[in-house]
Amino acid sequence: MILEFMRDDHRACDHLLAEAENALADxxxxxxxxxxxxxxxxxxxxxxxxxxxxxxxxxxxxxxMGGPTQMMRYxxxxxxxxxxxxxxxxxxxxxxxxFGIGESMMIMLQQHNMKEEQMLYPMIDRxxxxxxxxxxxxxKDMSR
Length: 144
Ligand SMILES: [Fe+2]
Ligand SMILES: [Fe+2]
Prior knowledge:
- The chain is mainly alpha-helical.
- Helix content is 88%, strand content 0%.
- The protein is elongated.
């Protein structure tokens, strides 16, 4: 199931950010920077999997171009920009900014992920039917 695969990936990303924030709160700056970088790469990769494969295939299959996938793409743009701001703040050791932007980013990301898990992924699973497993393999094969 697409839902299961993508939901697991949401959780893996969340976990990396929590670890990065914990490390930074413990003043383990280098570890925090490495963990944040993993989170940053994993989250951008997740958005790429959706935009370049999953949403595109769903749109082709259903003809739904201006619906939920368009809204999710727009939210990705906003999230990507917040991720850039977090990364810059961390690289300049502006930790308060990092945590502040991180809080806004996380609220937006949680709402975004919830919409995908509750609405969009189930729609995609129904649209893809038996080809869902092939799609999951394609997503796994995408290079980071
Ligand atoms: Fe998304
Ligand atoms: Fe997602």
